Amino acid sequence: MKKIFILLSIIVFGLAACEDELNQVPISEMSADGFFQDEKGFEQAINGTYEALSTYPERQFHLSDVRSDNIYGVGSMGVRSHEPVNNFAFTLAVNEYMTEAWDNNFKGIMRANTVLENLSADLVPDEAMRNRLEGEAKFLRALFYFDLIRYFGPVPLVDRLVSPNEALEIPRSPVADIYTLIISDLQDAAQKLPSSYSGINIGRATSYAAKGLLARVHLTRSGPVLHPDGPCLGVNEYSQALSLLNEVIAGPYSMLTDYAATFDLFNENNSDIVFDIQFASGGLGVGASYPGELAGSAFWKAAGYPYAIGLETKDVSYDLINSYGENDSRLDFNVQIGYIDPTNGQYVEDPVCTKFSRIDPETWGADRFDFGINFPVLRFADVLLMKAECILQGASGTQTEVDKIVSDVRARGGLSAVSNVTMDDLLEERRKEFLGEGLRWHDLVRTGKVLDVMNAWIQVEDESGQMRSSIDYKHIIYPIPQSQIDVKKGLYEQNEGYE
């Protein structure tokens, strides 16, 4: 396993004072004096920009999986932060997950802007290295901004370093304007990034990763407008997405024959991974915490994990479990239906997402923040299924192509081939394939299915009646964190419906 993250404590960014400001405004300035002197300094800086992705896995799980019909997150240990997300509360402006999503994405944007503003031929004479650094910074900035608009809609558009005082004058920009920057960044990244890496650089963004992410952007932009400030613009860019996806498909990727091997700690950066977030255990401060978030305390205690997790299990939806069918090997890998409580020897029927928890105890890190398993942002299976989506949405292609793609994905799970696949069939296959990878809510939003699917699911799954009985377009995006609303009265207007 090759890991590219490094300790922020050795990145002399001068960030301490700056990130205090980041808790108040989205962007703050950074002193680069004495730091950006040579290629090594820029490499450290770009590694620090990758580090801003360290909370990305938990965010996608809580704000996409938990929000969707994949997880029934009604708890029994008192109100936890994920429950209002699961229950579609309108009081989420003070929720910790809103603050995390805003602050850490803008932290990454600020770091990317710093690299881009300081990068020059004088400081990095090697053109290939300079292009790579620029491509990485733009890829990451695009990823951070794409995350922001999918969750919050309009956000401040900042493509350069600004002071805290300047930031207090920057309003939210329309989603369409943010997309202009995202698309430009990803197009530049696709041109400037290498197609692959070797040695310790394996895991960095490639030109294929930029093309794959850009395809996802085009798909999302093309979705029907259900919310006036949502991420879907109703444009028809399925052909653009398909062209990019075909370029990735022609690259060095393939689906592994064994689904579980895709997520094997000892088989990371395999041919199904187009881009993932690199983590390393060993007490270095660069490990992951998301496996604990997905499975929860009771599961890890039953597994003999020696450290306290302190997190409640978010149950996998029985509707999803039943959709797998008995012969789908992905169910056995992705979900553990129950476990034995070591305190009393009793069986507990708690359906747990264990996709990233099948880790040999010998590899457990120093604590629950020190798992070494990478998190996939874009997989080859996703690229293939997005191609099928483009064709179903009217891009060039045939039903036979769609059927073959879906059948190939199913075959890896031990299932038979299918024909005449519809968009609903495709979404259900994606749901089973990508459980725990934070794609489900985004899939439902961009295909325009979110309100119908979620309202039907709530009626079936929420027997306890703890969730909102139905949702409407206002729930498609989240509220701006209250901490940001309070920075300067009138700078941001809260998203419709939220308190």
Automatic annotation (TrEMBL):
InterPro entries: SusD-like_N (IPR033985), SusD_RagB_dom (IPR012944), TPR-like_helical_dom_sf (IPR011990). GO terms for cellular component: cell outer membrane. Gene3D superfamilies: 1.25.40.390. It is found in: Cell outer membrane. SUPFAM superfamilies: TPR-like. Keywords: Cell outer membrane, Membrane, Signal. Residues 94-219 form the SusD-like N-terminal domain. CDD domains: SusD (cd08977). Its main location: membrane. Belongs to the SusD family. This is RagB/SusD family nutrient uptake outer membrane protein.
